[in-house]
Design brief:
Largest interface: A-B, 25 and 31 residues
CATH class of chain B: Alpha Beta
Structural class of chain B: alpha/beta
Order of helices and strands of chain B: EEEHEEHEHHHEHEHEE
Number of strands of chain A: 10
Oligomer: heterodimer
CATH superfamily of chain B: P-loop containing nucleotide triphosphate hydrolases
Strand content of chain B: 25-35%
CATH topology of chain B: Rossmann fold
Bound molecules: adenosine-5'-diphosphate, magnesium ion
Order of helices and strands of chain A: HHEHEEHEEHEEEHEHEHHHHH
Number of domains of chain B: 1
Family (chain B): Belongs to the ABC transporter superfamily. Macrolide exporter (TC 3.A.1.122) family.
Strand content of chain A: 15-25%
Strand order of the largest sheet of chain A: 2-3-8-5-7-6
Radius of gyration of chain A: 33 Å
Helix content of chain B: 25-40%
Number of helices of chain B: 7
Protein name (chain B): Macrolide ABC transporter ATP-binding protein
CATH architecture of chain B: 3-Layer(aba) Sandwich
GO molecular function, one term (chain B): transmembrane transporter activity
Keywords (chain B): ATP-binding, Nucleotide-binding, Transport
Pfam families (chain B): ABC_tran
Number of strands of chain B: 10
Distance between the termini of chain B: 7 Å
Chain lengths: ~400, ~230
Amino acid sequence: MRASDNLQFSGRALTAYPMRTGLILLAMSIGVASVIILTTLGEGARQYVVGQFQMLGSHLLFVLPGRTETTGGLPPLLGTSPRDLTIDDALALKRSRSVQYVSPNVTGAAPVSYGAREREVMVFGTNNELFDAVELKILKGQFLPEADPRDAVSISVLGETLAKELFGKKHPVGEWIRVGDHRFRVIGVLSSEGQSIGMDMKDVVIIPVASAQSLFNIPSLYRIIVKARSKEALDQAEKDVIKIIRARHDGDDDVTILRQDALLKTFDGILKTLTWAVAGVAAISLIVAGILIMNVMLVSVSQRKAEIGLLKALGAPTRQVMTLFLSEALMLSLAGGLIGLALGLFSAKMVTFWIADFPVQTPMWAIGAALLVTVVTGLVFGSIPARQAAKLNPVIALSGK
Amino acid sequence: MIELQDICRSFVVGDETVHALDHVTLDIAKGEYISIMGASGSGKSTLLNMLGLLDEPNSGSYQFQGKELTTLSEEKRAAFRRENIGFIFQSFHLIPRLTAAGNLELPLMLMGMSPAERRKRSTKVLADLGLSDRAHHLPKQLSGGQQQRVAIARAMILKPPMLLADEPTGNLDTHSGTEVVKILEALNVSGITLVVVTHDVALGRRAHRRIRMLDGKIVQDESSRSNESAT
Ligand SMILES: Nc1ncnc2c1ncn2[C@@H]1O[C@H](COP(=O)(O)OP(=O)(O)O)[C@@H](O)[C@H]1O
Ligand SMILES: [Mg+2]
């Protein structure tokens, strides 16, 4: 039998029962469409997060005190606890030619007040280089000026939300606020367009790092942010940081360096897994559709017993009968799959329409996987009814019993 | 052409065994016109299905032109049916969603003939049957007699040497029945071996050789005209 005749014969069998065929197509296409939509959203979320990370500039290093176990190596010997990071450590890093900006950080929470208004917010001690390292933007006044980070100067820069809440419509620059027990003059307000580095930059007070150390009464740093001169210089910068710190810490590697690209990779991996997971859940609906196909085909086989008997009486071999019914199941699942694909891609486009800056890109693998699962569903769930049809006894089939 | 030897076929229904064919021995020569008569349940259809290789015996031998058929695989049995047997059924068994031409072309389609060649053949056959204007009608738009004529044409389109008809006029009025019988007899005259199972005594008498069955056994086998010499 010719393939084209096979298609036509099976196709006509399907169109002879429009209601039944329509329902299966609906089930199958909803399954495929949900795979497409969910993977598109998952992929969009991934690209969004990756994009956010990349906007930070991808050549940052975060130097943290203490060695994490995950970086390998021997556990510290008894009695040698890791040394703290100091402002002098941070200044020493400037010696590397691969390093462009170094920003020592101290963070903590403290009550901030202006007049009668008071709020508990994050206090971020740093230096002027943070501004360029993480590409902040200033709304009013100026950022911390270039100065020796060891000097505790009483100046502050406010996040936009905090400035509004403390000052309302009043101009904050030049005013004095109270942070803990200390008084600071406001010299600027950050724009909320600036990027965050693990904290909400809209709701912070930024003060010189030495001022933060005296405010919280700690001699050490929470971390150092290092920006390499370029992406290419990142590896060298990391090596230099390790070398410089080791030399200053009596030969011990007692810091942990997080690379932004490594963090990015981790997030990327997590979101990819998540996308696969939701796609898997959606694929279950395809299996449900497959079971539906099987049931409808089984009904069809028992309703068309006489036809099957006739085909056998006309000399159609077992294999041919099986092929005919299998192609019906395949056509059903494939048609459902294609309708679902169109539906899914259309819905994905609608998402772009509603959420303008959400990247919507249906991954090719999702389209391929959805169609593959469709075909496999048709083959697997169609083969049982097809086998049933093929092994019918022609005498009984023709007698209509 | 055909030699059945001690063919037995029994069915187990509940805890009873029904002997539908009980040691049936029968020779059929090429070109014969045979009618099989007998009470309902006497095994006529079972015998016809056995001849057409739709059914398998529990024991006995079936030789076709000297070749043993009972040992064939299902694949070979299908091929044998396609090449040697034309079936006619009481209820026509036309596929309801195919047109008259489509039903007629079904055996050609199954064997992979091109649509153009099929159409050429079916057009000619339909014209011979006087059904040219019904080519694109669905079975439900045809009368019973027309449907059975299409079914006969379908059975004959691959020119098998033997035609097996199980109550071909059972669902037809007298006039259409006569018409159908005339077509079958004309085919027999042209050399085709014809075996007709029937309830209709008048129709049964028309056959040159008349077989009567009772409880799975052949109880009478008479010929009005000796044409077995054609073997
Ligand atoms: N598939 C079957 N299962 C059980 N019994 C059957 C089957 N086919 C035929 N029989 C029995 O075999 C006997 C002969 O049947 P059949 O050949 O159809 O008779 P006829 O065509 O002469 O009316 C009957 O008793 C019938 O009930
Ligand atoms: Mg019968």
